[in-house]
Amino acid sequence: MVKKGKKTLLEKWDIPVNHLDFDYVKQCTDSKELERICLILRSGEEGYYPDLTKCAEDRLKCLKPNSKIFRTDTPVLRQGQLDQETSREICQNLAEFTQSVKQKENDLKKSRNSLNIDYPPVRQPRETSNAGNSRKKSEDRIKSFEYQKWDKYDADAEVLKLDLQEEIQKEQIEREQSQKKNVIIEEIVSPIWEKLTKIEREELALKHKIKGNEYFKTNDFEDAHREYTKCIEINPSAVGFNNRAIANIKLNRFKEAIEDCDECLKLEPKNLKALLRKAQALQLDDCKRSAYEVLQEILDIDPENSTALKSIAKLKQEIPLPPKGAFRMKIEEIPEESEVDLSKLIVPNKIVKSKISTVAQNIGKICGRAPEKRKEGQTTHDKKIDDIVLTPLRAANACESREAFIEEIFD
C-alpha cells in the first residue's frame, strides 16, 4: 500500500498501466523501462503477479544480463563457515601483515636512537596570574555613582587605545610565527630528510601522496602538484612521477608531463598507466605521430587495451599513416670546419656523345658546299680567308633553306 500524498512508482516514472502486460514485456527493447517494470512488479503496489514478474526478469536478462536489479547481497561469512583453505590463507595473510608491522616498528626504534637531531625545546605553559589581573580590572573600573570620573572619561581615546593594543599584539604574533617557521622548516626539516631511514622516507612520502590525491579529487591541481613534488623529493618512486604527470596534464604543462612519464618508465618500463599518460600528453602537445608510436607500444604489451585501441582509431582518422615498408631518414649535420669535396657528390647517370661534328656536316650540305680537298701549296691560313669571303654567299643560300636547316639540326 502507498501512503497518502506519496506518488506510486508508476506515477514517478510515468509508465502507463497497459505496459504491465505479457505482450508488451515480450516485445519491449528498452532495458531501462524493463528494469522499472520489474521494480514496480516486485514492489506489489499494483498487485502480486509472479508469472508476469518472471517474464519481465527473463526478458531483461536477454537484453541486459548485468543489470543492477539482479544483484543480491551475500551475508558476511564467519570463521566457522569458511573452508579450511580460505581460513588458512586469511590467517597466513594476517600473520604476514603483523610481522611486517612489527619489523617496521623495530626499524623505526633503531633509527630514532641513531639520529642525532637537535630539536628545539618543548614550550612550557606560562603561569598566568588571573587573580591579580581581575583585581586590577575591578579597581580601574569606574563605578556607576562616580560622576566626576565619568565626566573626565573620553570614550574615543579608550577605543583608540584598544585598537593600538590589538595591532601590537597581532604584530608580535606574526613575528613569532615567522621566526618559528624559519627555525623549524629551514634548520630542522631538511636535515631530517637526509638522515631518515628508508622506511621513514617511504612513510613520509606516502603521507604527501595521500594529501596530493585529496587535493586532486577536489580539482586543486596546483596543490596536488606541490604535494607530489614533495613525495618525489623525499622518496623518488614510479607512483610519484606518474601522479605528478597527470597533475601536469591538468595544468596544461605537457612537456613536464612527458618528462615525468619518462622518469616513471625508467623505473618501470612496462607501466601501462605511464605510457597512456605519455600518449595523452603527446597528443595534446600536437605530437600525434609520437603518440601513435607510444600507443603501439601499449598494444604490444596489452593487445586488448580498450583505451589504446580507441585512441589509435581516432588518430588514424586525424593523421595520414605512412605506407608499409616506410622508414625515417636520419639527417646528420656536417661541421663547418671540415671541407667537403663537392666533385665526389656529382656523378653523371650516363655520358652523351657530342653532336657538334654531325651538325657541322649538315650545315655544309645546306650551304651547298661539299668538303673540298686542299689545293697544292694552299696553307690553312689561305683556307680561312676563303671561308671568310664566302660567308655572305653561304648565309644567303642558308636563308632559302632555313626550314630544312632547323629540321636537320634537331633530328
TrEMBL record:
It holds the Pfam family TPR_1. It is found in: Cytoplasm. It comes from the Eukaryota. GO terms for cellular component: cytosol; mitochondrion. InterPro entries: CiliaryAsmbly_MitoImport, TPR-like_helical_dom_sf, TPR_rpt. PROSITE patterns: TPR. Keywords: Cytoplasm, Repeat, TPR repeat. One of its GO terms (molecular function) is heat shock protein binding. One of its GO terms (biological process) is protein targeting to mitochondrion. PANTHER family: RNA (RNA) POLYMERASE II ASSOCIATED PROTEIN HOMOLOG, SPAG1 AXONEMAL DYNEIN ASSEMBLY FACTOR. This is Sperm-associated antigen 1. It comes from Phlebotomus papatasi.
